[in-house]
Fold this protein.
Amino acid sequence: LLFSLCCFVPSPVNGIMGVKINVDDFQFSDEDLAKFKEQFAQFDKDGNGSISAAELGEIMKALGEEVPGYKLRQMIQEVDKDASGTVEFDEFLYMMNSSRSDKKPGFRQVVAKADKLNRLGGTSANSSEGTTHSFSDDEKESFCDWINYVLEKDDFLCKAGAIPMPIEGDSLYKSMHDGILLCKLINSSVADTIDERAINVAKLSIYKIHENQTLAINSAKAIGCAVINVGAQDLVDGIPHLILGLVWQIIRIGLFARINLANCPGLVRLLEDGETLEDLLALPPDQILLRWFNYHLKEAGHARRVANFSGDIKDSECYTILLKQIAPKNLHIDTSALQIADTKQRAEAMLANAEKMDCRKFVRARDVVKGNAKLNLAFVANLFNMHPGLEPLEDEPEPEVIEETREERTFRNWMNSLGVSPFVNNLYQDLRDGIVLLQLFDKITPGCVNWPKVNRPPFTKIGGNMKKLENCNRALMHGKEHKFSLVGIDGKDIFDGSKTLTLALVWQMLRAYTLSVLQRLASADGAGGAIGDAEVLAWVNSTLSGAGKDSQIRSFKDQTIATGHAVIDVVDAIRPGSIDYSLVLPNSITDEKDRMMNAKYAISMGRKGGAAIYALPEDIVEVKHKMLLTIFACLWVAALEQPAST
């Protein structure tokens, strides 16, 4: 049994932990690297660039093994050279290189078994139900169905024959080839992320296709997707696991985006004793959905409660009660499914009710019975969005709508795009233990964090808060080492969730990260000296004048930036001819809507040109100088990353 493989744990001595890995030393062939990349993606289910114990547990379950959490963590420790608690791709390669020896770690043996499982799994018509399939078949079919649903009114895709796409086969992967559908899917999840004027739709050469994929990747990062070890060519080639990981992130972000007071004022009904609205909205979306589910079970007088989206819903009993409780009365949804003994047939009857509610999405009967947590989570999220069943409280003042600010959302999306773990749902609550902050410092200056000294979850009730506070203090220590302005900020402010002081720290981290990437590229390009705000400003103006552009800016507070022309001209300067100036409104515009049109085009064209811009069009129109610095710095990065012939 695989369980027996979990017992070997390497001792963190003789330099095993903290090893600096140089993957160039491994001498893998291109074919080997492609294979390892796909294997890694099979384990990295959320696509954030690292394999956690939870993700390893999912694979073990698929292999028929129920392994305790501590054993899973031991398996991770076998190959976790930097002691971060997860396995990154370079560590995965280190393991694969080391496994050429006779003694293979337990994790490596799981990789071999998982690889065998995927090879043996059949997806053809000859494969009977119940045989082993690849991990992603159910997800692929569900995602195809959802994409058909949300994009069914897109005239371009329908006329091109891209929508509806067949559910079976490899249509999903082929449909991603030119990047158009992927861009439109991103917009369906977070409206107006991509200015569709920036998408190449005619006479698609491989160059124009790569531009579309680059636009999609950078836009996905901007909405908080972790797109790590995924390039434009991977999407062009239709690599299944990479596409499924990215598509799931995009879909999940769209589903969760509507779980807020603005869309559902009745969320106030889910408050528990002594809890504030802010406390409720700080919960991860999946926890809010579970609370919503259980609220309706209680309102229906049902005795059971659900604690997960897997084992607790397999028999469809709670689903059947939920649907009757939230469905409009005129649909006449009943609980007759509970009279069916066979669980798969009961699930089918329950889903027939969901279809009446236009909510038969993501799951099939087999997904319910198997307890596919990912697909059942998506099913419940869509139920909430379509039929929340939460009327505002009567005779009560309307609750103050607590919405995430643009600044908060930008910072959170930036963090998540880098693959931090856990995923940051609430900027303040999810930074309180210091773990994410330390991960970010390790990305600003790789290797700066001494991970064996970091306190890791789970944190005990007794002494746990002190451990979290120690982490926050350690993070601020790194801030001081990076010359941050931290006057009046200490670890307790971060632990307490102080908004003003947390934002002050996080802004400096985003700035430092952007400039550190730029510094490394500039140094490799032969440029000397430190890069700061003044150097970025000088680069902007020299780039504009060198390309014969009329735009010039005095500072990042220059109000002329509001028209969008300075950003647009820089994009065209670093990629000559990329801007269609017939789409750009004149520099004399004063109307905010007109300026927003230019700003949206500027941001999308910058991303299309290779810049990982996290800022929003509003930051240009409102001349938010801090975010403008990051926009221009990201464009400089894109310029340095271009091939010399471009």
